[in-house]
Amino acid sequence: MATYLDFEQNLKIIEEEIISAKVKADEYAVSILESKLEKEIKKTYGSLDDFQKLKLARHIDRPYALDYVRSLLSDYYEIHGDRHLSDDPAIVCFFGMLGDQKVLLIGEQKGRGVKNKIKRNFGMPNPEGYRKALRVARIAEKFDIPIVMLVDTPGAYPGIGAEERSQSEAIAKNLFEFSDLDTITISIVIGEGGSGGALAIGVADKLAMMRYSVYSVISPEGCAAILWDDPKKVETAAKALKLTPEDLKEMKLIDDIVDEPLTGAHRKKAEAFKAVGDYIVNSINELKQIPRQQRLDQRYEKLLSLGSFV
User: In a 3-state reduction of DSSP, which class is residue 206?
Assistant: First the structure.
């Protein structure tokens, strides 16, 4: 069954009425209600605020990295372990075929259901996850395989063990090494992009965000707690953080916005998979046309320009 957010209740009522009309075989009522639903969809999703977009980015039915792997890749196989300590299930790495193009897909996986969420640590990677991502990226670089990264995390895991194993060093090393990888790199925020946990697999030739994804230095809840010590200020924090794709594109912090379905990737998953797949293929083809040194120079210049303003 579909899960509706608080601002989607009118859609729920109309969709339930459509189901009832179909059961009664009342085609005229179905036609009227579908027209009403279309107008309500435009009204609801045409005026979303930043906090509502955040809720969509966190929707429990939203596709995760493994959903994209299974939908987009064929003949895929997973690579495990960082060759230092262990394998971190919060980050998954797959080699596979996207159409006729071999790719490496690195993704942050939140997990569904209590047991799986615990296994994946709610999508919060430990240092081993970032080291695994870098190890596998080096393999892709060796064989000139394009790298696709799917960002979806509330942030890197802040536990004592993670800090003891140098969480900040692992993230910093990824920022440094990914900036200099000698192969095509594309990163897409598919849900939540939280702080260094997102940055660690967010350095790429092209950085894009899906329509209902967010990308920020801290969660709105964390921001509200630090600045105001008041959980009621979460919506104010979400607006102040400028975490939506439109805000970040305007500030030139991302390159593109992937146009997922108007009602969200969780409602029309097949369309969302196609939108992401098409963006990846088009981006790889575009980047292949750029001479290697020029592409690396463009990546370097882009990174240097981040945060500049007048």
Answer: strand
Q: What is the pLDDT along the chain (310 residues), one digit of tens a residue?
A: 678 999 999 999 999 999 999 998 999 999 999 999 999 999 999 989 999 999 999 999 999 999 999 999 999 999 999 999 999 999 999 999 999 999 999 999 999 999 999 999 999 999 999 999 999 999 999 999 999 999 999 999 999 999 999 999 999 999 999 999 999 999 999 999 988 999 999 999 999 999 999 999 998 988 999 999 988 899 999 999 999 999 999 999 999 999 999 999 999 999 999 999 999 999 999 999 999 999 999 999 999 988 777 7
Name the residue ranges covered by the structural domains of the chain.
7-47, 52-305
Write out the two tokens for 207. 């950085």
Q: Could you tell me if 275 and 260 are in contact, meaning their C-beta atoms sit under 8 angstroms apart?
A: yes
Q: Burial code of 232-259, b = ≥16 C-beta within 10 A, e = fewer?
A: ebbebbbeebbbbbebbeeeebbbbbbe
What are the two backbone dihedrals, phi and then psi, of residue 94, each rounded to the nearest 5 degrees? -130, 130
| Fold held by 52-305 | 2-enoyl-CoA Hydratase; Chain A, domain 1 (3.90.226)
Identify the residue whose tokens are 């794709």: 245
Residue 93 and residue 79 in contact, taking contact as beta carbons nearer than 8 Å = yes
Tokens of 27: 């085609």
